[in-house]
Amino acid sequence: MSLVSRDPVLLTPGPLTTSLQTKSAMLRDWGSWDAAFNAVTAKVRQQLLKIIHGEETHVCVPMQGSGTFSVEAAINTLVPRDGHVLVLINGAYGKRMARLTEMMGRRVSVFETPEDVPTTAEDVERLLAADSSITHVGLIHCETSTGILNPLEEIADVVARHGKGLILDAMSSFGALEIDAKKIQFDAVIAASGKCIEGPPGMGFVLVRKSVLEKCAGHSTSLSLDLYDQWVYMEKTTQWRFTPPTHILVALHTALNQFEAEGGQAARLQRYTNNYQTLMAGLEELGLQSFLKPEIQAPIIVTVHAPVNAKYDFKTFYETVRSKGFVLYPGKLTQAETFRVGCIGAIGTQEMRSAIHAMKDALAEMV
Ligand SMILES: *Cc1c(COP(=O)(O)O)cnc(C)c1O
Prior knowledge:
CATH class of the largest domain: Alpha Beta
Distance between the termini: 34 Å
Number of domains: 2
Strand content: 15-25%
CATH architecture of the largest domain: 3-Layer(aba) Sandwich
Order of helices and strands: EHHEHEHEHEEEHEEEHHHHEHEEEH
Shape: globular
CATH topology of the largest domain: Aspartate Aminotransferase, domain 2
CATH superfamily of the largest domain: Type I PLP-dependent aspartate aminotransferase-like (Major domain)
Helix content: 40-55%
Strand order of the largest sheet: 2-10-9-8-5-3-4
Number of helices: 12
Oligomer: single chain
Bound molecules: pyridoxal-5'-phosphate
């Protein structure tokens, strides 16, 4: 994969580096009433459903805004006002889901493990057995604050066995890690345009079990974030309910075409895994250590311990690496000084190797 622009490479978990083709798709203006634009919306909805093999069981409801808007819309629409959500937390995004659930007036219980400990199916089994009032379970697939992977399949099985609804925040894994609606049961999976599908940021989408969404009229306490209304309106008119993010949607369509041409989810996972392995080998060369054990690490984003060097300072390190063409991501942990490196985006191992060189030079300049 060759670098076609002189913009710095974003080693961040979204917004991320997009291809020139995806960027170029944003050079046209579209009318929201225009049939050609609405055909793109329909196509994108189909393409997204196909990624989870959900054409028979689920529907795709796109939503304006960043990913959090879609998480909020999913919880607010799918959980009845007297519902009770158990949120499984091992990082900032789990905490955010619990907070927004509470703010929307739903009952919420949380189960929190340390940031380097995945939630297990046994935990969920015990929690659901202990409290039958729980109606839904909220799970973060890959918790982007560290890069930890939670065991989706096992947890989904437990939730299904208890007859509860699973709401999955798969924002940073969707398109890269397998999520197959034919193999696992969930009410909704939430993701966004600007992560592993490699579109620009600006809209999210929720893939909801149709039989569930059909019963969600009137749940939402928000007008703009009502997924049920968005769905019904879109089905009826082919249009978005309020002003659509036209350029983002068309670029997302282009990104999805490239995703399919590359070979879909399996090929994307392979490329990211190659990036991840190149990164890990490079970190070892630099004497840097990753925060998570490899067994629980998704090949999406890696949290790295700051070097043991009295002169190290993230801001200086960041600026130096930035001046060499690579944008790193700050750490999000309270317990340890870290920084993060994303493996996702329209990049390959060549960019990752160059990034390692940039980090090496930056560290050498700091002693
Ligand atoms: C990116 C992300 C979100 C959404 O964050 P926004 O800043 O609103 O786009 C939610 N959950 C996870 C796990 C994420 O990685």
